[in-house]
Amino acid sequence: MLTLYGFDVSNYFNMIKLALAIKGIEYKSVILYPNQSADYLTKSPMGKVPALETEQGILTETNVILEYLDDTYPDKPLYPGNMFEKAKIKELIKITELYLELPARRCHSEVFFGQVADELTKKEVKRALCKGIEGLARCAHFSPYLAGKQLTAADIVFLYSADLASAVAGKLFDIDLLDIAPGAKQLMATLNEREDVIKIAKGRKIANIEFKKYIANLS
């Protein structure tokens, strides 16, 4: 059986949880935070989460894990279509990650944990998020999903990236980020109506209480 290492507040951890749920793959979870312990570094070279333990060994990095799951468990594919169509899904994922998730992460400390980011950082993040959502709008179909009529791995990454990016844009810049990309708001609503997504959201809410205690103890 697969073993998934991580914690329920992590958006990347939840991406893998949703992929496993969609595919109906059984697994067990080991809840832990990113760390540099000697034991965990044998599993995750950078001490990051998620990490997925398989019969062959352990995999890290969310994109790698998503593609592994799709190749190993081909039912309900998350990268459907021919080689070009698969590449377009990966392109959507990369755009979402590089130009929404990662810029927004620079301001997570202020939005979610009460610390203050410097003005230059916020200026750069605001510019990056607006440019990123505009780029995604040009690349995505939103008909109704990012890549077309079928839910793909791109939608999983979008769900757990655009929600945080939207929170940053709304709180710090008073910008409705999803409103910039026609169809994005409806897609987010559609994804959040799924039973598997609702279940993950409940777990995330509960885990957030302990995670905030953990962050406070690090200060």
Describe the structure.
With 219 residues, the protein is α+β, with helices and mostly antiparallel strands. The chain folds into 2 domains: 76 residues, Glutaredoxin (3-Layer(aba) Sandwich), CATH 3.40.30.10; 113 residues, Glutathione S-transferase Yfyf (Class Pi), Chain A, domain 2 (Up-down Bundle), CATH 1.20.1050. The protein is 60% helix and 7% strand. The protein has a 4-stranded mixed beta sheet, with helices on one face. Helix 1 runs parallel beside helix 3, helix 1 runs antiparallel to helix 7 and helix 4 packs parallel to helix 7. 34% of the residues are buried. The model has no long low-confidence stretch (mean pLDDT 96).
Percent range for β-strand residues: 5-15%
CATH topology of the largest domain: Glutathione S-transferase Yfyf (Class Pi), Chain A, domain 2
CA-to-CA gap between the ends? Answer: 37 Å
Number of domains: 2
Query: What structural class results from the helix and strand content?
Result: alpha+beta
Q: Number of DSSP helices?
A: 9
What does this entry show, briefly?
By secondary structure, this protein is an alpha+beta fold. It has 2 domains: about 1-75, Glutaredoxin, CATH 3.40.30; about 85-195, Glutathione S-transferase Yfyf (Class Pi), Chain A, domain 2, CATH 1.20.1050. The chain has helices spanning about 10-25, 40, 60-70, 85-105, 110-115, 120-140, 155-175, 185-190, 195-219, and strands at about 1-5, 25-30, 50-55, 60.
